[in-house]
Description:
Blueprint: E1 15-18, E2 35-39, H1 47-58, E3 65-69, H2 71-80, H3 84-92, H4 96-101, H5 116-126, E4 137-144, E5 150-153, H6 158-165, E6 175-177, E7 180-184, H7 193-198, E8 203-208, H8 223-226, H9 248-260, H10 270-292, E9 297-300, H11 314-336
Parallel strand pairs: 1-5, 2-3, 2-8, 3-4, 8-9
Antiparallel strand pairs: 4-5, 4-7, 6-7
Amino acid sequence: MFGFNWKTFEKSGESFSAASDGGAHPPRRTGRPRIGLALGSGAARGWSHIGVLQELEARQVPIDVIAGCSIGAVVGGCYAADKLAELEKFARALTKRRVFSLMDISFSGAGMMSGGKLRDELSRELEERRIENLPITFGAVATEIGAGHEVWLRKGDLVHAIRASYAMPGIFEPLQIDHRWLFDGALVNPVPVTLCRAMGAELVIAVNLVGDVAYRGTLIADAAAMANEPELKPHETAQGREPDPASPRAAEARQLRRQFGRAANGAPGIAAAMLDAFNITQDRIARSRLAGDPPDVLIAARLSKIGFFDFHRADELIALGREAARRALNDIAEVAALEGQIHGFKPKH
Length: 349
């Protein structure tokens, strides 16, 4: 009942495992299936993954394998490293101003943001953690630039793997791992069911964050608004003093406005347009991949009213994630016949 068809996801060389461990899978556990969780991409909506994990944990549904893509790799990697509580604390503390402060302009030409501030936040909790030493089997999906290969990161530095998985083209600088330049995995596998099964999961629960997208232009209305500050006319400030237009912070704010905001005629800035186009694309790719290799249980949170850059709405997103997981509990129990096989598991009636 818990077996699966290897032919459904063997790609004859289309997928690669960076720093591969030879493809060895953990031995099957007796008495119950090995349960895998595939956490999908979706930018800020990914905070709902925290709620999903919390609800499954509260119901004592064990997770043996986690595969993550983009924000799913962030949450999944932190969970596998036993750092979910720290990530939740960070997410709930985010405000519009704090989100704005984490956006560091890149001058390398490889991306609009260097991602250095986000890297520092991850390194603070996950420094020197290696994927192969985590207590839970974990893998992240990335995309190789040029070749378009799907790359599975299953060994090596955890922070590097996470950063490669969320390096959105044109927004973040790409990462080089094992002589490959890598971008966001959502370009090839937004909800990595395939990777979950390849790492030994016999029952896969997938979380899709982009299936109910309502493209409402809610990415970033304006960089000044993200900073929780009013837009100022020349020679005006909230205190009546003229701002220093030559200050580095003022220059950075102007640059962010141009890239993430909208022009006077309402046209989106280049970054806003890229983000929206990227999200439309990953939605189409996710639909195709899930149709070709469906999970055993699909969790789809109701997130259409939350924008992809609403990182400051973690409280709502985590609650919505828990609600979505609760709705799926009976499906999990039915598909896997978990009643009596997992101690303490109580499906919702």
